[in-house]
Write a structure and sequence with these properties.
Length: about 350
């Protein structure tokens, strides 16, 4: 269980960089979050399981003894390595700072650029107040570079999605029905979207990641079971969310055998999808698509507003489910400091090398 930590500010005047490793600010600023990855349980799971070999830093901006902004950063231990948002490289999920308002964003930007190193924020929400605050802070104080990053698709849900097949063309409806008939030929088909309690979670999680491991992801090395650190991270994070009844594990079963799975959370009236997988033995009946069809319908029936696909706009999403997407940006900031200038020189060499090879840097 996660318990409310003591207030580390306690009315004192602290430099934000002096407050590290606690989760108090993340809990106090929870109402400012726009992503489930901004929760205290997400940050705690990352710190414990994914960042052990990195230098980490939590910047907290206080005002009148309480936090008004915070961000979790990490970097490799090289002499010029930049700070980046914790989880950027490890999970490639949308992540952002928690910021209570424009003044808090401006103060956080001051603290971030005062660390004396480059900032390399690979996937910040395009509308994050942190982005504009950093842009303003860097004027006349170094180099600021903003470029597009990978967008995240999402499917807005209306009442029409309670009967999800009605939202597709006749050809797509025919494809789903054909897949459903093939599944029925193999045995009794069952779908479920479960909200496990902490006591139920581990057994269901083990069953789910075993299904994912029977897909192409094992050969690619991206299945959860291929990486003990990611397995520990998702187990801790999703189990903590199950304490709030916000974890979701969805299954498609044939004769009781799980053939497709989703790991997700519900947050802010949305279904946030972290992991999918299916047993390739059953690929002919498209179990992943059939499970998604069920989940979309169930999400609409319980009143959720959207399905958030989180990762990136892969063709299986954009060709079939949605073309709507959230925009993200890659932020690079190089303050006038030796380590930041060294990072700029290395990045410039890499950029020119990529240009010479005809590739986008």
């Amino acid at each position: 269980m996660y318990h409310e930590p003591d207030n580390p500010f306690d009315g004192r005047s602290l430099r934000p960089a002096d407050v590290r490793s606690d989760l108090y600010a993340w809990r106090k600023l929870a109402d400012c979050a726009s992503l489930p990855t901004q929760s205290d349980v997400f940050v705690a799971a990352m710190q414990q399981h994914l960042l052990q070999y990195l230098e980490t830093c939590q910047l907290h901006v206080p005002a009148k003894g309480e936090p008004i902004a915070c961000i979790a950063l990490c970097r490799s231990k090289g002499p010029i390595s930049p700070w980046r948002m914790s989880g950027d490289d490890e999970l490639f999920e949308p992540i952002d700072a928690l910021i209570s308002g424009p003044d808090a964003a401006a103060q956080l930007a001051i603290e971030m650029t005062s660390l004396g190193r480059a900032l390399d924020l690979g996937r910040a929400p395009a509308n994050s107040p942190m982005v504009e605050a950093l842009r303003r802070r860097m004027r006349g104080r170094g180099l600021f570079w903003l470029s597009d990053s990978t967008p995240a698709p999402y499917l807005p849900l209306s009442a029409s999605w309670r009967a999800p097949l009605d939202n597709f063309s006749s050809r797509r409806r025919s494809d789903f029905r054909r897949a459903s008939r093939r599944a029925d030929e193999l045995g009794t088909v069952e779908f479920s979207m479960l909200a496990p309690s902490p006591g139920e979670f581990d057994a269901l999680f083990d069953e789910a990641i075993a299904v994912e491991a029977r897909s192409w992801k094992s050969a690619a090395g991206s299945a959860i079971l291929c990486d003990p650190r990611k397995e520990a991270f998702f187990r801790r994070y999703l189990k903590a969310m199950s304490e709030k009844r916000q974890s979701r594990i969805a299954f498609m079963r044939i004769d009781g055998t799980p053939v497709a799975v989703q790991l997700a959370v519900t947050w802010d009236d949305r279904y946030w999808l972290y992991k999918i997988g299916f047993d390739e033995t059953y690929a002919r009946c498209s179990p992943g698509s059939l499970l998604m069809l069920y989940v979309v319908g169930e999400a609409a029936r319980v009143g959720l507003r959207a399905v958030e696909f989180m990762g990136e706009a892969e063709s299986w999403i954009t060709d079939l489910w949605t073309k709507e997407q959230h925009e993200f940006v890659h932020v690079r900031a190089y303050p006038l400091a030796p380590a930041a200038i060294g990072a700029l020189a290395c990045d410039a060499v890499a950029w020119f090398a990529a240009r010479l090879r005809g590739r986008k840097p």
